[in-house]
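call fold(seq) -> tokens
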Amino acid sequence: MSFPDHLLFIDRQSKQPLYDQIEQNLCELIIKGHLAAGQALPSENDLAELYGVNRLTVRRALDEMVRHRWVARRRGIGTFVSQPHVASISPVKLSFTDEMRSIGRRAGSQLIEQKVIPANLKIAQHLNLHEGEDVFELTRVRLADDIPLLLETSCLPHERFPDLENEPSLAHGSLYAHLLEVYRVQVTGMDQTLKPVLLTRAQAQLLDAEPGVPGIVSEIVAYDRAGEPVEYSWSVTSGDKCEFYFRFRHGTLT
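ret:
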């Protein structure tokens, strides 16, 4: 695969630093398949000439890409696009399926259970329900290229979303896509809390990990356009398979 130098682009009128634009541009080329795993990048000097910047600007962009494991340097040989090895999850992506697609991974799911249960106090509070009201509970192992990443449980108001317990497509498809297609409800925002844990034996077995290894629990409340809670979910992931990537720029999260 030849290097797509015609797709290189930076905006000199933008306030975004040039090195950041170069990193973003090259990452987008990887995501969209214009740069394949194992493919060599041009040298720093060649990239500097293609972008019309100095070599130190290119080096800083590549340093960031190495740090986030988009590329790897081989001493005396060059810089190469990395093979995907962990899923880098960013809060800007509301859907697991969309997030995996954006980093070039194939999303999948293994259904553990889907059923209707009475909401306990915590679930009810997050979904603005009364304790004991029916909620639909969906438990799945979320996969990237058939590798188990997350053990995820989602709860949704059953009155608002009836018949979800009988929907077979949720075993492998996107829950958010189904909500939009069938109920015309779009998830547009979420609150997320992260905390460290040690994996239990049951969690480790489903995630193909060792019991007691460090993991991360993510709790999410997802909201529709009107600001109403749609879903309360919690998921656990093994720390060696997944990372959460946050980037702050001028008070905004991207």
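The first helix runs from residue 18 to 31.
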